[in-house]
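Researcher: Go.
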Amino acid sequence: MRLNKLHLKNYRNYDELTMDFSKNLIIFLGENAQGKTNLLESIYVLAMTRSHRTTSEQELIGWEQEQALVQGEISKGSSKLPLEILLSKKGRKTKINHIEQKKLSSYVGQLNVILFAPEDLSLVKGSPQVRRKFLDMELGQINPIYLYNLVQYQSILKQRNQYLKQLSEKKQSDLLYLDILSEQLADFGSKVLKARSQFIKKLEFWANSLHQQITHQKEHLKIEYVTTLNSLKSQSQEQIQKQFLEELAKNQKKDLFRGTTTVGPHRDDLHFFINEKNVQVYGSQGQQRTTALSVKLAEIDLIKEETGEYPILLLDDVMSELDDNRQLHLLETIEGKVQTFLTTTTLDHVKNKMTVEPEIFYVQQGKIKGDETE
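Model: Structure:
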């Protein structure tokens, strides 16, 4: 998979910009606060329909503008496909091959991207919410059905929490409706849980392989899905659904007291283990960073395995955050097989470390000064 063209209009600090990409490594070079990250973000938005930096779409729209446009042309195999997303105060409109898509799950997955930014190094030591978001974004790209089930789950969860609050405040008294919501939640929740469990098993396989390479076979990486339910690996979706429903019934008094749903995939987490020791608790900063790097890079092979195409890799100023050994391993992993977009303030991290010739664009105050290699 490749991104051949990118067109922006009224996107952040870019009034209008069209770029063509012909190489496998594209570098956006420039000082801080010039718009390098905005370019990477726009590619991410083109793929995922939302930003990784903000939940407010208004922030993506240029100053005093009504809407922003992001367009791109991607190659999959021998075919080319135009993608488009229009952002406005009214919401998002997406198009594939100039045809508007009504469902988010129909659009997401056309362009697969992996973003690696400095904050991703906190994947291991950050909050459970960070790891749940990572799971949902990555799994949603390769499995549209998962994305649909997740959206349904979140919608029913919101209804259940609102009704629990009304019950706890004595504004409602009908527990039968709560049972109906619980059944619906367990239905979609069990599908989310099963998909996550299968995804993590594959992710662990690829991440452990990379982790052993980086550590010269000294460390083995395990990833554990932490949930209130018993082991999900050997269970069918129906068994998980039954168990989830039992957990909801068991926790009903607590839910009523708190006015919120206390069990389910929205409360789950990931734990990482190096040589059987919990990295979040006992790992050094170096081990935590290596684990995060292994997990992010594992997605490259996992997405290739699932979709038949390598994803596009977006590296937002991460080279400066990694030591020489990890920099070299990152570049060796991606070299020659993955189209990579990289932002940096200096070429020192890349120079003399790659055999492929990069395409370099200098970014200054929302303008592209051209390919600096020419």
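Model: The chain has a mean pLDDT of 91.
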